[in-house]
Design goal:
447 residues; alpha/beta; Spore Coat Polysaccharide Biosynthesis Protein SpsA, Chain A; 2 domains; 6-stranded mixed β-sheet; 45% helix; transmembrane
């Protein structure tokens, strides 16, 4: 009996203890639930943040073009007779290109001002020890300009036509690029040794509404002096249209791929007043076509000389320091120009720069849009004999660093000396106004 009572008491004790534990566990669980719910309300989960924020907000605005949309409807690309090479006529190109854009509406929007910059160099390594370095920097310069202005860029190192692996290579490449890029209204060719020196200047495309080829040149030198340097094919625009496709074929008939190449070489030498080198090059051939086919071509080819689409480098390099001082004065006088901003909107101050420089550069002239290192041959190193020693290479480095300063400014750095490309300094807030204040107060400014 006592043993039974003991067992009963023990069971009662265990039951009461279990009850207490149970109620305690329930209480703790309720507290935890309350805390978790409170945290959930005040601190949204990562999943909630994703659904609230959205990928578009995180990455900025949705992309302007849809590069994944390519409908199954047949286009000119499905035609077996389509070729990317010169000499093979493409008919109804304007209609075919318009049809492609209709099937790709995201590209159709803004197509009339879309530019593809095309450039390139030889497929083999440079013989000049610093040639590959210079070409890389020249390409970086073009990539920087393209990024700032929202242009696509294509760099080619392949010879697309075995008979056009010289100065004529650009014509074959432009032809292929037109077919491969129906979304682009303009194909902008730039020689590998052409450098952007005004990173904010934007090409006035509205000026060329009635034209299909824009090349730097001077009418009097073409039609009166008949000079082979009356225009420059180191930097020019070609509209992506039927007229241009046909013109490229006509132009290429004077190239080494033509059986009449020798005839054209002799004709150019006898026709152009100052041509000193034999051979039918692409620039001399274009001058000749303008001279002999003015009625057919003149209305469609625009000779641009209101801004420097291709400025001769010898007249530019000596002014770079003056340009730098003028631009520093502009930033001192105009807070808008020295204000920090995202690179993606740096184009917004281009007009301000242009207006200031036009009004304050009467003596030294405005910085050129593009500087062309004609005759330097950075890859082969066989520069014009009149350029002594390292004149070309030093000039290219200085010009590239000058242009690079306009890019680095958006990243908060600057080349203090454009002769020393690897040496950069961080910019102080409100530079250069902040520097002036230090100097006025007698505080030394060393970095």
């Amino acid at each position: 009996m006592s043993r039974a009572k003991a067992q009963t008491k023990q069971s009662s004790y265990i039951s009461r203890d279990s009850s207490r534990s149970y109620f305690l566990a329930v209480f703790v669980s309720m507290v935890l639930v309350f805390v978790i719910c409170s945290l959930t309300e005040t601190l949204p989960s990562f999943q909630n943040r994703i659904s609230t924020t959205g990928a578009d907000t995180c990455n900025g605005e949705p992309p302007a073009v849809n590069r994944t949309h390519d409908p199954k409807q047949a286009t000119f690309y499905d035609e077996p007779e389509l070729t990317y090479t010169l000499g093979k006529t493409i008919k109804d190109w304007d209609k075919k290109r318009k049809s492609w854009l209709n099937l790709h509406p995201s590209f159709a929007a803004g197509a009339d001002t879309r530019i593809l910059i095309v450039t390139g160099s030889q497929p083999s390594p440079c013989k000049n020890p610093i040639g590959d370095h210079l070409l890389l920097r020249c390409f970086k310069n073009k990539a920087d300009y393209s990024r700032i202005h929202g242009y696509d860029i294509f760099y080619n190192t392949a010879c697309l036509d075995p008979k056009l692996c010289n100065v004529w290579a650009k014509v074959a490449l432009i032809r292929a690029a037109m077919v491969a890029h129906p979304e682009a209204e303009w194909i902008w060719w730039m020689d590998s040794d052409a450098v952007f020196t005004d990173m904010y200047f934007k090409v006035p495309l509205q000026r060329y509404k009635q034209h299909n080829l824009v090349v730097p040149g001077w009418p009097d030198m073409v039609y009166e002096k008949k000079s082979w340097v009356s225009l420059n094919t180191g930097s020019f625009f070609t509209r992506n249209c039927q007229w241009s496709l046909d013109f490229l074929d006509v132009w290429a008939r004077m190239s080494p791929r033509s059986p009449d190449y020798k005839f054209w070489s002799e004709t150019l030498m006898s026709t152009l007043s100052d041509k000193m080198f034999p051979g039918a090059d692409e620039q001399s051939s274009l001058v000749y076509l303008l001279l002999t086919e003015k009625k057919k071509l003149g209305d469609k080819i625009y000779l641009e000389n209101q801004y420097d689409l291709s400025s001769y480098w010898v007249g530019v390099v000596g002014k770079l320091d003056k340009f730098t001082r003028t631009e520093a004065d502009a930033e001192k006088n105009l807070p808008l120009l020295r204000r920090r901003r995202a690179e993606v909107v740096s184009e917004s101050v281009g007009g301000v720069w242009e207006k200031y420089l036009e009004n304050n550069t009467a003596s030294e002239g405005k910085r050129p849009f593009i500087t062309h290192f004609t005759g330097c041959q950075p890859c082969s190193g066989n520069h014009d004999p009149s350029y002594v020693g390292n004149t070309c290479w030093d000039a290219m480095e200085r010009t590239l660093n000058y242009a690079d300063n306009q890019v680095l400014r958006n990243l908060g750095f600057v080349h203090r000396d454009i002769s020393r490309g690897s040496y950069v300094l961080p910019l102080a807030f409100d530079f250069p106004s902040e520097v002036l204040q230090r100097k006025k107060s007698g505080e030394e400014y060393n970095r």
